[in-house]
Structures are given as structure tokens and as C-alpha cells.
Amino acid sequence: MTDPDRVSLAFIWDKESPHFNRRTFMKTAAFASAAGFLAACGSSSGSGKAGATSDKSAEPKVLNFYNWTDYIADDTIPNFQKETGIKVTYDNYASNDELFAKLSAGSTGYDIIVPTDATLVKMKHAKLVEPLDLSLIPNVKNLDPRFTTAAYDPGNKYSIPWQWGTTGIGFDKNKVGGEVTDWDAFDLPNVKGKSSYLDEARDAFAMALFALGKDPNTTDTGDLDDARDYLIDLKKKVKAITSDYQDPLKGGELLLAQAYSGDVFTIQADNKPNIEYVIPKSGAFSWVDSMAVPKGAPHPGNAEKFMNYILEPKVGAALTNFVNYGSPNKAAEPFILKEIKDNPLIYPPPAVLAKLPFQKDIGEDELEYSDRWTEVKTA
Q: Among 256, 258, 312, 372, which is disulfide-ready with 191 (CB 3.0 to 4.6 Å)?
């Protein structure tokens, strides 16, 4: 059950790319080393207050923040420092894989990190994050209920959401040769050999399961067999199974790709209005990046102060207005720019949102996906 060869990884990036940042890198470590950390660490079900300092009021006025590149408003940190007197050191990482490896290696000195939901689940199992003291984060009341009951961290015991988006389809509207509304767009004649789906097991299987009308978080082996067969058949039609689709889509090598919302919006902003994004009508995964406190963080109280600050309505709105993702902060919505709030691809209407679940923590059943993903990749 702990054979690492049973778990497939794909983290493909180019550090020299001008778009190598959070807006173009949405890959997650959704199921990396699933068996190993589950068997070795068990389930992390700790409770109580976060951090190594028992008296948080006595913490030095220091906060060490580790976040994705290009993923914060220009005035967020200056205004927080001015308001609290807490000096912030701000560092960046480029992938969940990099973040997980750094935390796994031992104490980092960081107080806040921003993992994606599937990686947060992995970190909880590996006991790499501290439980939060929500009494120090009263603005948690400002969160949309969707983010207080989410399967990756119900009750916000370990995390406070930062921003969120969706996984759907990016495509060249001028060349696909048909309407793109759902996953069956891969069958359009023009895109044969010029499409791709993600080299991420849970995302790829979710696409197949949604297309087949099944639960994207299923652990039913029959359903997973059907999804495996769907992906093997689709593999014959696509150019590649890859998470490195941004430049090929922009350059015309790909006409259609399973994609993360922010990646496609970035391509559009790079003077490519022919590239569009659609949320498949049969459904797709949502993802969310959340603030968390690493195990042994030296200033957990200051981290919780920052989390509370981000949940201030105008602060949260300023963040969203800069990065152009969805805000989990319901109280911030009146202050979010109209062009963002009215964009149904950033803020889907209720009927669409109902078909955009988060990935669930399915424990050792990740291996059921891992084994079948190996079959897909080697077919």
C-alpha cells in the first residue's frame, strides 16, 4: 500500500517563462505519495490553538509570509504593517510541490503559507500544518458559507481561504470548428490531435466522471473503471496529456485544452482574445487556495491577525480586484469591481456553481485513482 511507484506525479513548469507565477501555475499535488503519508502519519485530527508560542500576545511583531508569485495586491502588506506595526517578510514559491517539499524537510520559519485545497489535505495528513484558533479570527463570519463547509477543511479548522477558481476548457474560438459547451468538445473534428487534458489524476478523472454523469469524488471501483476507459479512449484523440498547455494554446499548437481558469484569463490578457474559457455544463472541479499556519510557526498569532485582516471586506475586495480570481469573502462583494463580479466565469451563477464541487479528501482510496492513472498513462 505504500509503494511510491503506484502514485503518479506531474509537475511541469518553466522557471524562465515570463508567466511563471500563480496566475499560470494551477497544478496541485493532489495525490502525491498518498499511501506513504497516510500509512506513516495517519489522520491529523488535532484540536486546540495553533503555533509554538503559548502567549500569542507576547510574540515579536514579525510575520513571515510564503505565497505564490504575483498573487497579492500592491497595498495589502504595506497597509497591514501600518495598521498593526507587524513587519512582514514576503517570499514566493511557484508550485504546491515546492511548498510541500520545503515543509516536509523541516522547520521553515514561515508563519503563513497558501496551499491549494488538495495540497492542504495532504499537509493535514502529514501533520505539517497547525490547527487555527478561530477566536482570533472573528472575521471568519465574513466567509461565504461554501468555504466554511468545504470538504477539504470543514469548519476552517486549519485554513482560511484566499482566492478560488475553476477547472474547465480553454479553446481557440476561431479554429475549433464548433460550439464548446461541455467535455464532448474533444470530439470536434478540428481539434483531433490538437487538444490536451491535464496530467493530474484527480482533475483528469473528474473530467471523465463528469462527462459520464458520475460523482467526480467517487470511490466506486466500477465508476473508476469506466472513467479509466474513457480517458484511455480520449488519449487516442488528443495531442498530449499535459499540464503545460498555456504556450501551446496561445501559439496554436493546441486548439482546445482542459485548463485552469486563471491560466486562460492570463492568455487572454496577453493580447489573445481568440482564446476563450468555458465551464463545462455537465460540471467541473472548483479549486481554492487557503492560508494556513505551518507546523512550528514562530508567530502563529500574527498569522491569525493577518488572516483576520484579509477577511476585512475592503481588504478582501482589493485583493480580488488585483488578482482577478473569485473571493471567498462574502462581505467583500459590494467592493469588488463590477467587471469581475459580473463575469460568470469568475463568479458563476448559482445553477452553475452547484456543479462545481471541491475535491474531497478520500484517504487511502486515492490509490484507486493512482493505479488506474498508471494504466491510462501506459496505455
A: 256
Q: Nearest Cα to 305, choosing from 136, 154, 150? A: 136
| Nearby residues of 18 by Cβ (< 8 Å), 6 or more positions away | none
CB 94 within 8 A of CB 116: no
E strand segments, 206-268: 240-241, 256-260
Average pLDDT along the chain: 86
Please report whether residue 113 resides in a domain. yes
Which CATH number covers residue 144? 3.40.190.10
**What is the pLDDT, as a whole number, of residue 84?**
97
In terms of Cα–Cα distance, which of 307, 304, 353 is closest to 326?
353
Phi, psi of 88 (to 5 degrees): -105, 130
Query: Residue 29: which domain range?
Result: 17-159+292-311
**CA 182: distance to chain centroid?**
21
Distance CA 211, CA 202 (A): 14
User: Are 131 and 195 in a shared domain?
Assistant: no
Question: Would you mind telling me the total number of residues written for the chain in this entry?
Answer: 379
Phi, psi of 108 (to 5 degrees): -105, -20
Q: Tell me, what's the pLDDT at 154? A: 92
Burial category of 325 from C-beta neighbours within 10 Å (exposed 0-12, middle 13-18, buried 19 and up): buried
Q: What is the C-alpha to C-alpha distance for residues 77 and 308, in angstroms, rounded to an integer?
A: 13
Q: How wide is the angle at C-alpha 312 spanned by C-alphas 310 and 314, nearest 5°?
A: 100
Tell me how crowded residue 208 is: count the other CB atoms within 10 A of its CB.
24
Give per-residue pLDDT as tens, 9-45. Answer: 222 223 333 333 443 333 333 333 333 333 333 333 3
pLDDT tens, residue by residue, 54-72: 578 789 999 999 998 889 9
Same domain, 243 and 151: no
